Amino acid sequence: MSTIMILNGPNLNLLGQREPEQYGHETLADVEAMCKAEAAKHGYDVDFRQSNHEGVLVDAIHEAGQLIKAGKLLGVVFNPGAYTHTSIALHDAIKGAEVPVVEVHISNVHAREAFRHHSYISPCAVGIVIGMGVQGYVLGMQGLLNKVAK
């Protein structure tokens, strides 16, 4: 059985307690359970990760690239959090490791502060889901399956 990696960036470990009016009341554990249930419907496993450290996320993308080449991973659904707007390193990792990524954001970043309107991830993503709450993860998984699964 192949796997889908769900990768979460900084502060997403605070989901459910940080600005619930913006991000909702679901926790990251709730999101993980939802993703595992959705993946199982399609015959996939989930490798669910979160880190507040950019280098750890870069390493996960590199690992994903190796797993994809080995036929063990379909791709990555990635909520890079604030690194969306700052990380050229994540952009370069996605391109360099040739990883199909669907970028996900719980809130509508374009309806928020101006600094959130630019993404370094979007130009190398196969798709983007923005502003659909935590349901965006499921939509991202479905998009990845539609774009990448053979």
From TrEMBL:
Its EC number is 4.2.1.10. The keyword Lyase applies. It is an enzyme of class 4 (lyase). The record marks R18 as: Transition state stabilizer. Substrate binds at N79, H85, D92, I106, S107, R116. The active site is at Y23, H105. Pathway: Metabolic intermediate biosynthesis; chorismate biosynthesis; chorismate from D-erythrose 4-phosphate and phosphoenolpyruvate: step 3/7. PANTHER family: CATABOLIC 3-DEHYDROQUINASE (PTHR21272:SF3). Catalyzes a trans-dehydration via an enolate intermediate. This is 3-dehydroquinate dehydratase. It comes from Marinomonas aquimarina.
